[in-house]
Amino acid sequence: MTDTYEPVIGLEIHVQLKTRTKMFCGCELSFGDPRNIHTCSVCLGLPGALPVINARAVHFGLMIGLALGSEIAERSLFHRKNYFYPDLPKGYQISQYDVPLCSGGSLGEVRIHRVHLEEDAAKLDHLGQSGRIHGADRSIVDFNRGGTPLVEIVTEPDFGSPEQVREWLTLLRESLRQLDVSDVDMSQGSLRCDANVSVRPAGSDTLGTKTELKNMNSFRFLESGIRAEIDRQTSLLQNGESVVQETLHFDPVSGRLTSLRSKEEAHDYRYFPEPDLLPLVATREMLDAARAEIGELPAEREARLGREHGLGPELARLFAFRRELGDYFERAVAAGDGAGPVEIANWIPQLVERIGSDADPSESQVSPESLATLASMVKAKEISRDAGREVLTLLVSEGGDPRAIVQREGLGALSDGLGEVVDRALAADPDAAAQVRAGNRRAVGPLVGYVMRETKGRADGGEVTKLIFERLGI
Amino acid sequence: MTDLIELSAAQAAESVRAGEVDARELFETYRARAAANELNAFTWVADAAPEGGAGGPLGGVPVAVKDLFCTEGVPSQAGSRILEGYRPPYTATVVANLARAGAPLLGKTNQDEFAMGSSNENSGFGPVLNPWDRARVPGGSSGGSAAAVAAGLAPWAIGTDTGGSIRQPAALCGIVGMKPTYGACSRFGMIAFASSLDQAGPLTRDVTDCALLLGQMVGKDPCDSTSLEFPEEITLPRGGDLNGIRLGVPEELTGSEGGVDPGVRDRFEEALKLAEDLGASIEPCRLPHAPHALSAYYLIAPAEASANLARFDGVRYGLRVDGSSDLLTMYSRTRATGFGPEVKRRIMLGTYALSSGYYDAYYGTAQKVRTKISEDFKAAFERFDFVVTPTSPWTAFELGAKTDDPLAMYLNDFCTVPMPLAGIPAISIPCGLSENLPVGFQLAGPAFSENRLLSAAYALEQAIGFDGSDARR
Amino acid sequence: MLDHSQVLHVARLARLELNDAEVERLASELSHVLDHIEKIRELELDGVAPTSHVIDVVNALRPDEPIPSLPAEVALAAAPEPVEQGFGVPTPGVAQ
């Protein structure tokens, strides 16, 4: 019998903040610029240079902490994290250690351990065949990125599967995007995620030895990397071997995991408080300013849309994750005009189809009030659903008032004289009529089609079907 | 022109302003003496007097600047081979302040490598000689600045003080040296040794010059988070008495357990007597943790230095030992070649003190001792205006006399290290000779008491009447 | 009290290449210094807060306003190995 193992995963996420300047100096942030054009004595680590904290980076850090429901430290400290690497100009990174900006909190079902501020390392390009570190023997350092403000978010090991990681990261990314504190683009490096992975016998509550997975630059690679590592650890344990604590790099092309550092190079970062920086106190003003800029976050909105407006999970999630759609929806609901939230909500995907999936509906010709009116007209059967779709198409191209369009195009629902048209349909297709009478309800199709054609779609399909069945005594 | 040399900096500034002395002639006189450099006090001297007027409160009187202050386009090596020939793209705030105030750059002075030393024998560019006796050390780490001022090679100079590196060489060279309150002067552009202790300060012929120079050095700098606004203007001292001034003499730093040389002790006592004659009251005071200041210092300073010196790795500037395709070897060999033995010693000590398993016992404990030392001073200053000690336990020793034993060298600092640990200001003035070598008298006061310190030092200076002109011949 | 292997370990952390004579010398010098310094561990320091900053000030922050950067040629002026407007270095080993 094989033992079953369950994975335990925690994440370490680095978020580049979209301030104008770096964490500790006034150089501008950039991406893709020529090498070393955004440097100064501070971010180059020249002798005698000193760091000075960027107030906006602190502001963004506080926003993130408050949005995650973390406890904000009254007084936090920066520390030096000492090690040698060419992308680290001072030979230490200024980070936070045992007194971080924020502790605790949660997002969705995942608990946050801590949130802190630090500076990003520079960029290393490797000269060699593939541009990757393996096989190169000379590298070039570009300090443009060095010193970019980072927020590091560390979660508790609350993830039980790679899928859960991927879903949660999507939520985190959208939340950070809505806070407008980062571009959170994994392909550009403004969102990076390392995973700590361990496995344990299913149902146990002790933790196994964990490994660290680094350098996965898309959600897809992260998911497959974690899965590969879970498999690797599981088969080790199943073979009676043990897991070694190490740092691993996942190559998505080959599916292989390679060790980046042997366990001998134990990290001795020799942390001590940064003497060049003063303690950081989160004042009342700073907290108020941060709180004022946080709107409602996706997870909260999703829950509220379900609760307040009775939206089903798919639409609630869509409107929570795409703030423009959610805002538009809520304005339409406020306009009301006889339509309820669920009816209105159902028309929004139709609108999106017509304006393009990336477009913002509030920038279209269809005002939220018009959409609400349209929804209520259909609900009241003033026009058929099909007619409604035509009206929407026209609203998209010319704007205006739906009632006027209906009037102008003559799209009003036909209920007068519908009976005569139905009678004509039955007369025109006696075979179909006979089949329906005999019990084959599906044969009603062509009869309905006849009526719809005769009425140019202005009749309501459901109404027509009902009338036909009535006439035929079903 | 010996006449020009005999003017103090303040007198020279006054004469330039009055039109009696030509600023360029003044500059050239000193420039020529500095360039002759028989004491090895300078690592770089200006080619010529600068263009432009001699305006400003400092009257065009040129200043010698310790090598570790970044001076744009001019070698700034911190006394180290690892930075040999390095020319920074920017100037230290303090130096820029002085230039703006009318004190142009005369030259860069030799120093112990990365400010680590008490004798200037740790320089990568050779030792500096004491003008009072060229077989002896000038003290350190600002040995070049002290020797230059004492020998009349520069009218005044600036240095840095971390554990005594301004005050001790000032004492050994018979001049005035002051370490201001921590944060009073900007550290931006000062190649760092120990960030929580380093401070820039003046080395001058007399207390008036010291006040004049200091006044242009202090000020909050947006480029240095630890710099502070000085609460009042630095004023030139006046008055000749010490009426009502209470002086505390800490047994821990002046008793026989302190190992103070008898000649130094005698001059110190005589100065105390003079202070009394001027109206001061003298009483013993206690600084119970002062005997441990040296230990705390030699844990905190090397620890911070080990991190501050990590940037010297051959990647972006400075020495690189080439010919290796292995990064680890490039780092290790560059640093081993570029750093002198004392710097290596302190980097090792500091790295060890911070390393896993040892942090609490060493660095952590030292920072607690530091808290106690601050508390000791605070308590003392409730009963006394100033704490007074000999600046250095002995006079200038012979070159090579203490280089075999690092610990013996460290003991040079035991009277001067407590003040930087507490962040408080202290000044050293010459109070006499012992066997023809200068002895220094130190006064320390609470944070931001610079004006009162300068006044008291001035009054005492007048009474002592020390004549340093011998060293200028 | 500092033996060879400890000296070598610390030297590695500090990226200092030492020859045998130096290791020997440093072991003895550092031990000698530490013997003296060690005495502070005997002090009664329970409940004493370590000094992390000797001045009692907090929050020195700067506004998020750009300050002109150095031109690339100035940034690279002292570079031992300028390459394609970057700082050339031997490639870090994978097992550093």
Summarize the SSE layout with pairings.
The complex is a heterotrimer of chains A (474), B (473) and C (96).
Chain A lengths: L4 E12 L36 E2 H13 L3 E2 L2 E2 L2 E4 L9 E4 L6 E2 L2 E2 L2 E10 L3 E5 L10 E5 L6 E7 L6 H18 L11 E11 L9 E6 L2 H20 L8 E5 L4 E6 L10 E2 L6 E2 L2 H10 L4 H12 L3 H9 L1 H13 L5 H15 L12 H12 L5 H14 L3 H8 L8 H11 L1 H9 L5 H11 L6 H11 L3
Parallel strand pairs in A: 14-15
Antiparallel strand pairs in A: 1-12, 1-13, 3-7, 4-18, 5-6, 5-17, 7-9, 8-9, 9-12, 10-11, 13-14, 15-16
Helix pairs in contact in A: 1-4, 2-3, 5-6, 6-7, 7-8, 7-9, 8-9, 8-10, 9-10, 12-14, 12-15, 14-15
Chain B lengths: L1 H5 L2 H9 L5 H14 L5 E4 L17 E4 L26 H8 L4 E5 L33 H8 L5 E6 L5 H7 L2 E4 L19 E6 L2 H9 L30 E5 H4 L7 H16 L3 E5 L7 H16 L18 H12 L2 H14 L5 H24 L2 E5 L15 H5 L7 H5 L3 E9 L2 E8 L5 H15 L9
Parallel strand pairs in B: 2-3, 2-4, 7-8, 7-9
Antiparallel strand pairs in B: 1-3, 4-6, 5-6, 5-10, 9-11, 10-11
Helix pairs in contact in B: 5-6, 7-16, 10-12, 10-13
Chain C lengths: L3 H10 L6 H18 L23 E2 L9 H4 L6 E2 L2 E5 L6
Antiparallel strand pairs in C: 2-3
Helix pairs in contact in C: 1-2
Written overview of the protein:
The complex is a heterotrimer of chains A (474), B (473) and C (96). Chain A has 3 domains: 5-292, no CATH class; 298-409; 418-471. Chain A is built from 15 helices and 18 strands. Chain A has helices spanning 55-67, 162-179, 219-238, 284-293, 298-309, 313-321, 323-335, 341-355, 368-379, 385-398, 402-409, 418-428, 430-438, 444-454, 461-471, and strands at residues 5-16, 53-54, 71-72, 75-76, 79-82, 92-95, 102-103, 106-107, 110-119, 123-127, 138-142, 149-155, 191-201, 211-216, 247-251, 256-261, 272-273, 280-281. In chain A, the strands form 4 sheets. In chain A, strands 1, 3, 7, 8, 9, 12, 13, 14, 15 and 16 form a 10-stranded mixed beta sheet that branches. Chain A has a 3-stranded antiparallel beta sheet with strand order 6-5-17, with no helix packed on it. Chain A is elongated. The model of chain B has no long low-confidence stretch (mean pLDDT 95). By secondary structure, chain B is α/β, with parallel strands linked by helices. Chain B has an 11-stranded mixed beta sheet. The longest helix of chain B has 24 residues, at 360-383. Chain B is 36% helix and 13% strand. By secondary structure, chain C is an alpha+beta fold. Chain C has a domain at 1-42: Histone, subunit A. A two-stranded antiparallel ribbon of chain C has the order 2-3. The two termini of chain C are 29 Å apart. Classes of the chains: A alpha+beta (474), B alpha/beta (473), C alpha+beta (96). Chains in contact: A-B, A-C, B-C. Chains B and C meet through helix 10, helix 11, helix 12, helix 13 and helix 14 of B and helix 1, helix 2 and strand 3 of C. Strand 11 (138-142) of chain A pairs antiparallel with strand 3 of chain C, so a sheet runs across the interface.
